[in-house]
């Protein structure tokens, strides 16, 4: 597809819950192949902004565009089909099935469109190969036959990334991907995200509190505060900007690092 449009764009996107404006006229365009971190204090509207982009919530005002097409009124499922992939919550998986079976199921769901009886056998082989490729990509082949319910936490988070890759999205959304991870698990997930951007030229949106994670991954940071976009730019400049320091309630950049 021609790339005259940003892959994703929100224009004047807003949502009110009663009298509270959780996302306040956020206009932002995301270019292909970039990783944007979305930061802001607790309650700033980051998750709500994500929910508006992925379709879990409908805005009160404003629009969401994917490849220049207005998807504001489309369902989560349609946005997923069109290329917006949000990292899975493990509660959506089948815990009694194996890692491999879960990845195959997602690959199958993705492939169901365009299903053709005459190429059924080929499709099946392709699907299996695709699942194996994804498992290798996230280094889960060793535990591919284990049930999801017995996986260590770090492997469960890797599986979330595997399932997202299996969907083949153009835009990948991660909401605090390192939350609850041990110190040695964090670099594995960060490497995976880095690899996704580098090898697949994907557009990535990341909600993250840890500034060291953001520094190591992001091309750009946008800052939400009270639902509004208050800063946008290259990481070093944004992190050190007065408005960000104020948004983080007077914390110094060093304190923010350990955020
Ligand atoms: N469904 C809802 N109904 C009412 N208020 C909501 C709803 N969802 C979010 N809010 C409110 O909207 C504001 C933004 O919440 P949101 O969860 O998006 O913030 P956040 O930046 O993701 O915070 P955190 O970093 O703590 O996850 C908060 O004041 C929250 O209480």
From TrEMBL:
Heme as UniProt keyword: no
Signal peptide residues on this chain, from the entry's feature table: none
Domain of life from the UniProt record: Bacteria
Family annotation (CDD domains): ABC_Mj1267_LivG_branched (cd03219)
UniProt name for this protein: ABC-type transporter, ATPase component: HAAT family
One GO MF term: ATP binding
Listed Gene3D superfamilies: P-loop containing nucleotide triphosphate hydrolases
Pfam family, one: ABC_tran
GO cellular component, one term: plasma membrane
Domain ABC transporter span(s) in chain numbering: 8-251
Keywords: ATP-binding, Nucleotide-binding, Transport
